[in-house]
Amino acid sequence: MSQNAKPLIKKDVVIIGAGASGLMCAREAGERNRSVLVLEHMNRTGKKIRISGGGRCNFTNIHLQPDQYLSDNPYFCKSALARFTPRDFIGMAEHHGIAYGEKEEGQMFCQRSSGDIVKMLDEECRNAGVKILLNCRVGSITKTGHFSIATNSGRIETGALVIATGGLSYPELGATDLGFRIAQKFGLRVTRLRPALVPLLFSRRDLHAFKGLSGISFDAVVRCKGIQFRGKVLFTHQGMSGPAILQISSYWDCGDEISIDLMPGMDSYALLTGMQKSRMELSNLFSAYLPRRFCQQWCAVNAPSRPVCQYTEKELREIAHKIHHWTIRFERTAGYAQAEVTAGGIDTSELSSRTMESKKVPGLFFAGEVIDIAGQLGGYNLQWAWSSGFAAGQYA
Ligand SMILES: Cc1cc2nc3c(=O)[nH]c(=O)nc-3n(C[C@H](O)[C@H](O)[C@H](O)COP(=O)(O)OP(=O)(O)OC[C@H]3O[C@@H](n4cnc5c(N)ncnc54)[C@H](O)[C@@H]3O)c2cc1C
């Protein structure tokens, strides 16, 4: 990286990543009269925020509880979430006149566009005197007392370096592994990284059976390893997605079985035995509760459809069991290209939960998704970015 004739830049705080946590951290540190520089390798700030929530940004959840986060240490997130809460973020949005509303289950969305949130954060940073360097490529980072950062804009020195580079999903929006590499370079542990909130892909056999159902969705309860979510499941060209599948994907590992209750809250055995004398085809009976094409295909694979009166009681019991426990062994996830978030990250035992500073390397802070904290679907990940960015900004 050529740095000839470029002046040395010195700042109190340098933040790598102008995404959700980086901008919040910058604003907070700037408010404390620290000189703050944010380094962003893309040509705009907050690219992931802009596409979040389908362009409307589900920016927080008012029913947030710390147990809605996945981490090797489920207690780590508590302190930061309690010090900058969903109400705090909503207050900031209201102060900027952003129109918002609750969609479902406490999920708060912009009414106009997620661009409103980025505009607000940019404005907050500007008002706090924060400088943002776009199209900035970060090279080597060393520490001898202070941090020295090589970039295409010259060498930068700082006493406090905040890594807010996010997770690995959606590389086209700027995701890189830089944050994890910096952690490892400074001797910090990184837990196993994996795509989460991600569609799951069928095995070859199931793909053959169900690929024609792409676009079909219905309400179900999805279970894996004792965890369960209720919501829509959606067939895709290669597997399944929809909120309930995305949620369970964060807990799923290759080889795990997923069980789907196709008629949650119903007693399908009572339904079947109540129709035991009927000549109605099994798949037609189920079509009153589930999409017809799905019922036909599900019956073809699990219980070849006949008039209900032709099944024995034992068979009806087995069919009812399968309706409430349809098990699928997915082959893999759709990967980081389609994952909403990365599970795993900087091992939280390396960091102070109050300040987000490294215990081993004074002055080195982390914020946002790069840390081993992954939220459930519904505004939790952005709230973690705001809260952890705020915490780091108070101490960096
Ligand atoms: C499609 C999609 C929809 C989503 N919708 C929602 C939602 O509605 N609600 C919700 O709560 N969460 C949502 N999320 C998750 C949420 O966007 C992230 O968890 C959140 O943005 C993480 O914040 P962050 O600051 O850690 O990382 P990011 O916001 O990803 O910011 C990281 C920044 O670092 C920059 N960066 C990375 N590498 C480098 C480098 N080498 N040099 C310089 N800069 C670098 C990136 O360009 C980026 O600007 C969604 C995610 C996706 C992919």
- Round the mean pLDDT to the nearest integer and report it: 96
| Poorly predicted residue ranges | none
CATH fold-level label of the largest domain:
FAD/NAD(P)-binding domain
Shape type: elongated
Share of residues in strands: 15-25%
The rounded Rg comes to: 25 Å
Helix content: 25-40%
Number of helices: 13
Largest sheet: 7 strands, mixed
- State the CATH architecture of the largest domain: 3-Layer(bba) Sandwich
The secondary-structure class comes to alpha+beta
Oligomerization state: single chain
How many beta-strand elements?
Answer: 21
Give the CATH class of the largest domain. Answer: Alpha Beta
CATH superfamily of the largest domain: FAD/NAD(P)-binding domain
Bound molecules: flavin-adenine dinucleotide
Short description:
This protein is an alpha+beta fold and 396 residues long.
Task: Provide structural commentary.
It is a single chain. The protein has 396 residues and is α+β, with helices and mostly antiparallel strands. The chain has 2 domains: 9-194 and 344-395, FAD/NAD(P)-binding domain, CATH 3.50.50.60; 200-333, Translation factors (Elongation Factor Tu (Ef-tu), domain 3), CATH 2.40.30.10. Helices cover 30% and strands 23% of the residues. The protein has helices at residues 20-31, 47-51, 78-83, 86-95, 115-127, 178-185, 204-210, 243-249, 268-274, 282-286, 292-302, 313-324, 380-395, and strands at residues 9-16, 36-39, 58-61, 69-70, 100-102, 107-110, 131-133, 138-144, 146-151, 154-163, 194-196, 200-201, 217-224, 227-235, 239-241, 258-261, 326-328, 332-333, 341-343, 364-366, 374-375. Strands 1, 2, 7, 8, 9, 10 and 20 form a 7-stranded mixed sheet that branches. A 7-stranded antiparallel sheet has the order 17-16-13-14-15-12-18. Strands 3-6-5 form a 3-stranded antiparallel sheet. Strand 14 (227-235) and strand 15 form a beta hairpin. The radius of gyration is 25 Å and the shape is elongated. It binds flavin-adenine dinucleotide. Residues 16-22, 39-42, 47-49, 51-53, 57-58, 138, 164-166, 169-170, 174-176, 178, 340-341, 368-370, 379-382, 385 line the site of flavin-adenine dinucleotide.
